[in-house]
């Protein structure tokens, strides 16, 4: 049984009718017209939504881009470290608490390694927020995890870095992609 594509009422099968609108899947020209108007409206709405999103993207400030790229990077860190205990206090990743991506050298002090995977590890919220990373404890476990020479490198001087908006967008896209790959693998 065929149904009208507009009003879902039953319509005759193709071999029983000669009306081109019924052959096309409608009761008649009126249902065809309603359907066409609806399709036009939908594509216009879709185009408007797209334009709106593009406009919103184009007026984003650098700070907003930086926030988004950091959020994408941090989400990847949390996924990478899933199942590992807090880097600063060994609290187990048992689902009982919020997990943070904790920077060893802070973003404010060292923006040039804000997106360096060696510099960011998952901690409990308590260590990251209440104890500012619980850094002395962080360091002990960081040496065990990545080795003394990598820690020395993190603590050493770094080339100053100012990210452009394009670089920030690139970082966001890269870590969203890496996150998807991680989630796909597990
Ligand atoms: Zn109809
Ligand atoms: Zn902790």
List keywords for this structure.
186 residues, mainly alpha, two-stranded antiparallel sheet, 7 helices, binds zinc ion
Tell me about this structure.
There is one protein chain. By secondary structure, the chain is mainly alpha-helical. The protein is built from seven helices and four strands, in the order ββαααββαααα. The protein has helices at residues 20-23, 29-58, 62-80, 125-130, 135-146, 148-155, 165-185; strands spanning 2-3, 10-11, 99-103, 120-124. It has a two-stranded antiparallel ribbon. Helix 3 (62-80) packs parallel to helix 7 and helix 5 (135-146) crosses helix 6. It binds zinc ion (2 copies). One zinc ion is lined by residues 4, 6-7, 9, 26-27, 31.
The gyration radius over C-alpha positions equals 27 Å
Strand content: 5-15%
How many β-strands, per DSSP? 4
The low-confidence runs, each spanning 5 or more residues with pLDDT under 50, are none
Placed side by side, the strands forming the largest sheet appear as 1-2
